[in-house]
Automatic annotation (TrEMBL):
InterPro entries in the record: c-di-AMP_regulator
Domain of life: Bacteria
Keyword vocabulary terms for this entry: Membrane, Transmembrane, Transmembrane helix
Organism for this UniProt entry: Echinicola vietnamensis (strain DSM 17526 / LMG 23754 / KMM 6221)
Record-given protein name: YbbR-like protein
Regions that span the bilayer: 21-38
Amino acid sequence: MNRFQKYFGKLKKNKTSDIKVVVLCVIAATTFWVLNALNKDNYVTVVDYPIAFQYNAEEYMAIEDLPSEIRIEINGNGWDLFRKYFKFNVTPFNIELTNPDERNYLLSSEYRRNLAEILEPTSLVAVLTDSLKFDFDRIVEHETEIVLDTGGMTLAPHHQFGGDLSWDPATVVLKGAESKVAELGEELVLTLEETDIEDDFDQYVPLILPERYHSLVSVTPKTVHVQFEVVAFLEGNKRLKLKKVNFPENVTLDNELNSVLMTYRVDEREVQSLRELELEAVVDYRKRNREDSTVVLEVKGMPDYITSVEVEPNTFKLLYAEP
């Protein structure tokens, strides 16, 4: 049994070695054939040849992606075609555009001769790309006005603006493709989206153009200084003397009070002013509701810095004495 195992083991080792030799011979033969074939002339193939556009980049810009290749059919030596097919050390074909905004295409007949020259010693058989299409715009600068959009911004509860909103600069300069600058128009909207603001606002807010303009239009400066004051309205209460006006002698109120209680919110900057303020709660008989014999109380001399005013009671029933 051991003798058979030794025999077949040697046979297996010899077989593996023979396979390796065969594989190496095939690789060597294939390599020799390929190298020999590449040395021959008069091959024809189709390649995608790299191109580059030359133009005045200070005056013009492309608003669509430019073609980067053209498909051509070429004839020549195997090694030369191999190098061009796989783009080994291939210099792109430069296409010069003088006034690129005046037309948006280039026919193959217009650049065929120059292309054939740079392909030598390879021969150009045909240009399979009929025409090259592109879209250029002249570069312009335009001053546009900044408009503040506060629609998405909120103040904290019981807070209000303490004055006008201000921003600097009031205008910015847009630079880029003429058609895209025109699309942005005469106003550039600066959106504030902060919420629950309770302190004075003093920030440099970035100007962000819609994404589709990012590579086509630039804005200078890139930030706007926005400022505004925010004031809190504080809760308070105050007792007011009740004053009756134009009442006949035979008319009284169902609730003969000397004073009423007013609750309110006051601008935090005007607390001291409120302390010094004399307010009156007036019930005017001439302003009565004749249908239900009631009269509503009015607070006279109420300044703008007081809000959310409520008076209790604020409506009185009129009582008429019999003659």
